[in-house]
């Protein structure tokens, strides 16, 4: 053991330099050519800057809602509910979310609510909802914003992201992008802020 | 839905197809043959050895290998304790995160040194960037340690009769520089362009469209994430690991990270076959592992896709599957698939919360870690499987009434004793740990996030994950307490180093024995029959030891839901 201890320390130091300093600096250098210089992709609209990949809380009736979140979309942290499938308290919470959704969307049938709108994501920062989750909110938004339902159908179709290369994985909608497009179509009518 | 299944098939097939040539490359690297990357890494490694005055030409026997391995691991542990406890006042800390408490630092450092990466902290608040870089370094070198140990096994069965098994530092450094680094580098570049951040700036503030102000954690993520997969480490940069939209921004990045974690464990098996010139044996091992893997993965994909029956019963559209704890961009099928990949190969990174998996999916995740050798972690997966081979050789030998032999070496009492101890260590640590935690509710009850059977599963999962050096969790468990930090810390040390020393000792002992050429009476170990035998031994060892515990946890939960 004594024979190995100094070589081990010296090897650790020189490898530390290689793997934990030089390697990340090279990756950082390459990242300068990536979108937003490797600081995470952003979307800008009306002079405001948003992270494209970080989900936001949308709870107002004038916007397409995002999914429930265990950390309330506070991106300084991240987290899921970690509730087990048989947990009674959890199942009651899901039922309550269904009731709330129906109260805000009286024109729809319960069987149209997709499960992603009443369950929390793993990260608590999920930027997406399913296509059905957007469609089920059309009637509410059309009524409040006084837009044709067909325009909203079109908006959803335009903002649906196809599976990777068209054949792998999921079809989904970035809620932020969809709501930004909605504001473009119909004006920013967020009462809370103005 | 079909595009989601197609995505899974492509991920798996691509991993196998890439692992075959990679295996050949790995065999060449360890044999010291010429490879494409020599001009880059020959000079780099020469600098390493000159500065640290190491002579890689001097051969070691298996004991010297283990002494060198344990010494350098101890050095990492000590430096790590120092860094994590003082990171609050060290540079590269834009978010002003504090130093770790001694018990948390103990657990975290051990966990990263042993390639487990249980994380009883959240990266956003628990680590400075300097701390993150140190842990990233440990993810490289702990993976390299496991691979270097596996190469001792390679060497032991290549030469007819020898005690000279190469040089630990040589294998270890080569694993890091020529195998782990190039693969990680390619993945890092892909991630950077998919939207994973690589910045040294601290938290950013953003006003949302609805007018709320939130902070957004960021950091040098893109350099960190690849090695967590390539080295089957699994320690995430952020608290939720690869469920975080910065760590895993798209379905494509998910595919890349999936392939990244599967290829080296697979390639090591092929490398073994090339290295000892017995490709048929490596095909047998690969087949047994693949059958076991698919038997766990396919049901999980199915159960997660079908979703929670209790939610279906509420009358909503449940066709997306079990979405609690899952991300829309990844979807339930790919998350179900990942939950088994990450548990069979000891990565332990997650892209969905395992605590919210369906009851029997949770059981399969546990079983995957309990068996811990259907592929297994880089290097160590093969070592774990080797133990089962030795046991299968012994039992087959008894059945046909011959002295058990493996690759021309007699397997005798001493080797069998070591194999038995190692095979029993894993159930011992898991079951005793869980039993203690359940018997001492004053230390553990407050940390549970779910009641009843699922609560027991949370504790069982934590010890299983620690003992399998996996690192995933039923993360509802509030595990940053002295009890969990210290108890899992000790499980981690024992379950890492004994299962490395055991198989390496057996290999070393066998290597010194006289070589007996194969004859008519030799039990052939590269056949389907022997594969079946090994599979049966694995199922019996895991089945008999763990089913009582599984019955009390996930199985009871499943039946309580009907």
Automatic annotation (TrEMBL), chain A:
| Name this protein carries in UniProt | Potassium-transporting ATPase KdpC subunit
Oligomeric and partner information? The system is composed of three essential subunits: KdpA, KdpB and KdpC.
Primary location class: membrane
What GO terms are given for molecular function? ATP binding; P-type potassium transmembrane transporter activity
Q: Which family does it belong to?
A: Belongs to the KdpC family.
Q: Where in the cell is it found?
A: Cell membrane
For this protein, the parts annotated as crossing the membrane are 12-31
Gene coding for it? kdpC
State one Pfam family annotation: KdpC
Bilayer topology term? Single-pass membrane protein
Q: Function of this protein?
A: Part of the high-affinity ATP-driven potassium transport (or Kdp) system, which catalyzes the hydrolysis of ATP coupled with the electrogenic transport of potassium into the cytoplasm. This subunit acts as a catalytic chaperone that increases the ATP-binding affinity of the ATP-hydrolyzing subunit KdpB by the formation of a transient KdpB/KdpC/ATP ternary complex.
Signal peptide as annotated in the record: none
Record has Translocase as a keyword: no
Transmembrane found in the keyword field: yes
**Cellular component per GO, a single term:** plasma membrane
Q: Which UniProt keywords apply?
A: ATP-binding, Cell membrane, Ion transport, Membrane, Nucleotide-binding, Potassium, Potassium transport, Transmembrane, Transmembrane helix, Transport
Automatic annotation (TrEMBL), chain B:
Q: Please give the family membership noted in the entry.
A: Belongs to the KdpA family.
Whose protein is this, by species? Answer: Taishania pollutisoli
Q: Where in the cell is it found?
A: Cell membrane
Q: How does it sit in the membrane?
A: Multi-pass membrane protein
This chain belongs to the protein called Potassium-transporting ATPase potassium-binding subunit
> Tell me, what does this protein do in biology?
Part of the high-affinity ATP-driven potassium transport (or Kdp) system, which catalyzes the hydrolysis of ATP coupled with the electrogenic transport of potassium into the cytoplasm. This subunit binds the extracellular potassium ions and delivers the ions to the membrane domain of KdpB through an intramembrane tunnel.
Which molecular function GO terms apply here? P-type potassium transmembrane transporter activity; potassium ion binding
One Pfam family of this protein, by short name? Answer: KdpA
Where does it primarily localize? membrane
Q: Which GO terms describe its cellular component?
A: plasma membrane
Which domain of life does this protein belong to?
Answer: Bacteria
Question: What parts of the sequence cross the membrane?
Answer: 6-27, 66-85, 133-154, 175-193, 251-272, 284-301, 374-398, 418-440, 482-511, 532-556
Record gene name: kdpA
Q: How does it assemble?
A: The system is composed of three essential subunits: KdpA, KdpB and KdpC.
NCBIfam families, A to Z: kdpA
List keywords of the entry alphabetically: Cell membrane, Ion transport, Membrane, Potassium, Potassium transport, Transmembrane, Transmembrane helix, Transport
């Amino acid at each position: 053991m004594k024979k190995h201890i100094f070589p081990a320390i010296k090897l650790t130091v020189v490898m530390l330099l290689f793997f934990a300093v030089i390697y990340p600096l090279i990756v950082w250098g390459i990242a300068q050519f990536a979108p937003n210089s490797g600081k995470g992709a952003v979307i800008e609209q009306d002079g405001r800057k948003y992270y494209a990949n970080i989900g936001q809380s949308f709870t107002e009736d004038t916007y397409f809602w995002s999914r429930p979140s265990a950390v309330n979309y506070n991106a300084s942290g991240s987290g899921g509910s970690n509730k087990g499938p048989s947990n009674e308290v959890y199942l009651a919470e899901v039922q309550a979310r269904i009731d709330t959704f129906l109260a805000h969307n009286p024109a729809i049938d319960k069987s149209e609510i997709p499960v992603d709108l009443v369950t929390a994501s793993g990260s608590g920062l999920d930027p997406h909802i399913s296509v059905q989750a957007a469609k089920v909110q059309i009637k509410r938004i059309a009524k409040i914003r006084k837009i044709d339902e067909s325009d909203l159908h079109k908006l959803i179709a335009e903002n649906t992201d196809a599976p990777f290369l068209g054949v792998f994985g999921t079809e989904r909608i970035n809620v932020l992008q969809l709501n930004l497009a909605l504001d473009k179509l119909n004006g920013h009518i967020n009462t809370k802020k103005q | 839905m079909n595009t989601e299944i197609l995505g899974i098939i492509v991920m798996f097939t691509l991993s196998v197809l890439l692992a075959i040539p990679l295996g050949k490359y790995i065999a060449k690297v360890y044999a010291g043959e010429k490879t494409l990357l020599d001009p880059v890494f020959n000079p780099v490694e020469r600098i390493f050895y000159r500065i640290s005055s190491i002579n890689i030409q001097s051969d070691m026997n298996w004991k010297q290998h283990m002494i060198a391995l344990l010494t350098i691991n101890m050095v990492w542990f000590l430096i790590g304790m120092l860094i994590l406890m003082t990171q609050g006042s060290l540079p590269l800390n834009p978010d002003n995160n504090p130093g770790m408490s001694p018990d948390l630092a103990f657990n975290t450092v051990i966990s990263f040194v042993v390639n487990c990466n249980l994380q009883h902290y959240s990266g956003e608040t628990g680590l400075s960037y300097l701390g993150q870089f140190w842990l990233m370094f440990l993810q490289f070198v702990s993976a390299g340690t496991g691979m270097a140990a596996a190469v001792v096994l390679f060497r032991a069965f290549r030469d007819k009769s020898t005690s000279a098994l190469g040089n630990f530092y040589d294998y270890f450094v080569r694993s890091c520089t020529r195998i782990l680094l190039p693969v990680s580098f390619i993945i890092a570049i892909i991630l950077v362009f998919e939207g994973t951040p690589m910045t040294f700036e601290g938290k950013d503030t953003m006003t949302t469209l609805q007018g709320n102000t939130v902070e957004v954690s960021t950091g040098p993520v893109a350099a960190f994430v690849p090695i967590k997969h390539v080295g089957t480490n699994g320690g995430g940069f952020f608290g939720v690991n690869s469920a975080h939209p910065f760590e895993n921004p798209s379905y494509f990045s998910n595919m890349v990270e999936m392939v990244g974690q599967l290829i080296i464990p697979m390639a090591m098996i092929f490398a073994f076959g090339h290295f000892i010139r017995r490709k048929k044996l490596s095909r047998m091992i690969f087949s047994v592992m693949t059958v076991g893997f698919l038997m766990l993965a396919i049901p999980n994909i199915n159960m997660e896709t079908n979703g929670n029956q209790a939610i279906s019963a509420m009358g909503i559209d449940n066709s997306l599957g079990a979405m609690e704890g899952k991300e829309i961009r990844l979807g339930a099928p790919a998350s179900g698939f990942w939950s088994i990949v990450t548990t069979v190969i000891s990565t332990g990174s997650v892209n969905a919360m395992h605590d919210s998996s369906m009851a029997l999916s949770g059981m399969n995740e546990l079983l995957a870690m309990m068996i811990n050798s259907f592929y297994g972690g880089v290097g160590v997966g093969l070592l774990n499987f080797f133990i089962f081979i030795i046991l299968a050789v012994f039992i087959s030998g008894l059945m046909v009434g011959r002295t058990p032999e493996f690759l021309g070496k007699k397997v005798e009492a001493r080797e069998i004793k070591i194999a038995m101890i190692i095979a029993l260590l894993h159930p011992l640590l898991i079951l005793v740990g869980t039993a203690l935690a359940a018997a001492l509710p004053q230390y553990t009850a407050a940390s549970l996030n779910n009641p009843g059977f699922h609560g027991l599963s949370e504790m069982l999962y934590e010890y299983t994950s620690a003992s399998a050096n996996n690192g995933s969790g039923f993360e509802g468990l509030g595990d940053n307490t002295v009890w969990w930090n210290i108890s899992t810390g000790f499980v981690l040390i024992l379950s890492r180093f004994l299962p490395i020393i055991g198989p390496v000792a057996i290999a070393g002992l066998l290597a010194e024995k006289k070589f007996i050429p194969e004859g008519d009476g030799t039990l052939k170990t590269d056949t389907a029959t022997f594969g079946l035998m090994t599979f049966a031994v694995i199922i019996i060892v895991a089945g008999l030891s763990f089913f009582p515990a599984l019955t009390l946890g996930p199985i009871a939960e499943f039946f309580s839901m009907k």
